[in-house]
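ok trying again, last paste got cut off:
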Amino acid sequence: MRRLLLLVFLLGGTIYAFAGQEDFTFVGWSNGNWENGYPYVIEPTNGPPGLFYAVMCDDYGHSGMMGDEWTANITNLGSQNISLTRFNNIPTPWALGALQLYDEAGWILLQTLNVQNNQYMDMNFAVWNIFDPSAPCNNGCEAWIQMAEQAAQNKFPDTDFNRVYVITPLNQHDPDPNSIQEFLYLGSDSGFPGEQNPGTTPEPGTLVLLGTGLAGVVGRKFWS
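nice, full thing came through this time. structure:
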């Protein structure tokens, strides 16, 4: 039934939002600071007015600033095909390789549905650390990494990876730290974009406040 619903969604009027490629514009960070973590806010450049996506950045080594526009490939993590993602060739000591890292990150994103938003910062730093161990990680971050690793050992019981989407710039392995990040998006069983995580997507009127003071500010490169 879930697969049928997804097919119906893809063939419906909102198919523009789930194409092989999609154009996006970066809107801003949570409360104006990249280090606040999830949610970052992006919008489909050619989408209807007022459609904003709350996304989690999984890419500590790249940056972005308000107004950046880019084209991305969209990968459904449930497909288990990560060939178009940024970290698809990252070396790992286990057989599943980079797919397990994406599954751990996707599992953490799904847990945002079950926790208070005061956990979001630690969760996002955990995701950054999963793909880049040089990223800072406090005790809360470490705890989320351990929980994700335990979930992996248990084969992620009751985890619906079909709800997790990876939004990757076309130049997936771009080494330029000034280029746009990769993002994870929490959709729904009915497809991308699907449901938003309650309380994470700003109303259009609040985007002015979100953007205040962001112009000319680049993300993590200048944070110390």
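cool. The CA atoms of residues 111 and 165 lie 15 Å apart. The chain has one domain: 2-214.
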